[in-house]
Amino acid sequence: MSRTQAGSSGAGTAHPDHLGHVIFIAAAAAMGGFLFGYDSSVINGAVEAIRDRYDVGSAVLAQVIAVALIGCAIGAATAGRIADRIGRIRCMQIAAVLFTVSAVGSALPFALWDLAMWRVIGGFAIGMASVIGPAYIAEVSPPAYRGRLGSFQQAAIVIGIAVSQLVNWGLLNAAGGDQRGELMGLEAWQVMLGV
């Protein structure tokens, strides 16, 4: 398609030279979806070890695992206003920093309540990513490609879930099949949450 044809058909098409760039931007924005999937399911590999380490029952353990949803709700509820104030890119950068801080904190908790706090922070990042990623992808995508590029976010979430389980499996095998086995100077479950 020539430049004239692309321009004459309106905003519904992107010039082929720019489509690769738009796809790259959409894929980068979908990394928030990947982290959403990864961080929301990586805890699955650490449940038994957390229960054993902190000697808690199922009810308390369930609360520590589910507390991330409080952060998700707050992150999703506030992300739009934050993005309106500082921009979508800056908002995604903040979410990325929060994902990182949460992973490090979750890997090195000194108490169960500390782990719960890091889970809330990670949940906040998940909530932000779930709102801002799709909005940004829709914003930068040409109308003719918006649906396909918008699906990057959902695909990234599923890929993140799958990768977290593969990483958990690999780390568990490296630790001799024991979630509390030593791995890189930490217990395996800590490495799972910190990766």
From TrEMBL:
<comment type="similarity">
    <text>Belongs to the major facilitator superfamily. Sugar transporter (TC 2.A.1.1) family.</text>
</comment>
<dbReference type="InterPro" id="IPR005828">
    <property type="entry name" value="MFS_sugar_transport-like"/>
</dbReference>
<dbReference type="InterPro" id="IPR005829">
    <property type="entry name" value="Sugar_transporter_CS"/>
</dbReference>
<feature type="transmembrane region" description="Helical">
    <location>
        <begin position="91"/>
        <end position="112"/>
    </location>
</feature>
<dbReference type="GO" id="GO:0022857">
    <property type="term" value="F:transmembrane transporter activity"/>
</dbReference>
<feature type="transmembrane region" description="Helical">
    <location>
        <begin position="21"/>
        <end position="38"/>
    </location>
</feature>
<dbReference type="Pfam" id="PF00083">
    <property type="entry name" value="Sugar_tr"/>
</dbReference>
<feature type="transmembrane region" description="Helical">
    <location>
        <begin position="58"/>
        <end position="79"/>
    </location>
</feature>
<dbReference type="GO" id="GO:0005886">
    <property type="term" value="C:plasma membrane"/>
</dbReference>
<dbReference type="InterPro" id="IPR003663">
    <property type="entry name" value="Sugar/inositol_transpt"/>
</dbReference>
<dbReference type="InterPro" id="IPR020846">
    <property type="entry name" value="MFS_dom"/>
</dbReference>
<dbReference type="InterPro" id="IPR050814">
    <property type="entry name" value="Myo-inositol_Transporter"/>
</dbReference>
<keyword id="KW-1133">Transmembrane helix</keyword>
<keyword id="KW-0813">Transport</keyword>
<dbReference type="InterPro" id="IPR036259">
    <property type="entry name" value="MFS_trans_sf"/>
</dbReference>
<feature type="transmembrane region" description="Helical">
    <location>
        <begin position="118"/>
        <end position="138"/>
    </location>
</feature>
<keyword id="KW-0472">Membrane</keyword>
<keyword id="KW-0812">Transmembrane</keyword>
<feature type="domain" description="Major facilitator superfamily (MFS) profile">
    <location>
        <begin position="25"/>
        <end position="195"/>
    </location>
</feature>
<protein>
    <submittedName>
        <fullName>Sugar porter family MFS transporter</fullName>
    </submittedName>
</protein>
